[in-house]
Amino acid sequence: MLTVLSPIFALLAAATNALGTVMQRRAATVVPQSSGLRIGLMWDLLRTPVWLLGIGGVALSAMFQGAALATGALAVVQPLFMLELPFVLLLASVVFGHPLPRAGWLPVGSIGGGLCLALFAAAPTGGTLGIPAARWTAVLTCCLLAVAVLCSVAVRLPNGPARAACMGLAAAVSYSLTAALMKSSTAALGRQGMGAFFTAWQTYAFAALGVCALFLLENAMQSGPLVASQPALTLGDTLVSLALGVTLYGERLRGGWWLTLQVFGLALVAYGVTRLSRQHLVPAGM
User: Taking the domains of the chain in order of start, what are their residue ranges?
Assistant: First the structure.
């Protein structure tokens, strides 16, 4: 039963997060622009009603994500977030008043079909919740260093697709690490109750990192078009989460000839994301 619930919760999380993303992008287009990482951006957004609606979607998504991680493997839950990209484009076509053209349906289908094929072939299983401190230290160091490097590169670039992609990828690494920390916290909640949840260091780490990830996401959205930041965010989150599931939690993927199907599925996903990025399938304001 838990195996069935986990993908359902993950899909709901992807859909509500897509709603939040579109609303936040809408808000980012009406607040004052800046070429740097502007802390005041958050204050401007707090006074924008559509941004608050977007944050509501993000909060709801976090609840669904926590439920998904508590009932399933990280290597299954986070890749399903890749479906956020087609959800974003479909919702954006409504919010911005421009229907998705026929040319957009093929890459959307490619992303969905490729993801299903890749997950079916990989069939992530196993995993352990007893993670030694040394492994946590190594993972945190690598991920935070990657975020720092990506941000350093981004702030040296002018506003545009390259800057948005770098910021989106930095946000992706942050969100993946947040999910890994959240999985450990929700496991403590399920096994030992609220006391263990609030005394686990991972609870406060994922809360702090989640705020940082949101800050990076907001700057990614203001740095350039959504068709540049969203693929970097979606693909990056998926691939980093798969790596964390295997290296941190010890989850296992099928090998042998199944690898061929996994690669083919990922190739379909890459094709869909690339087509969506290169073609102007969403409004210029996105």
Answer: 74-278
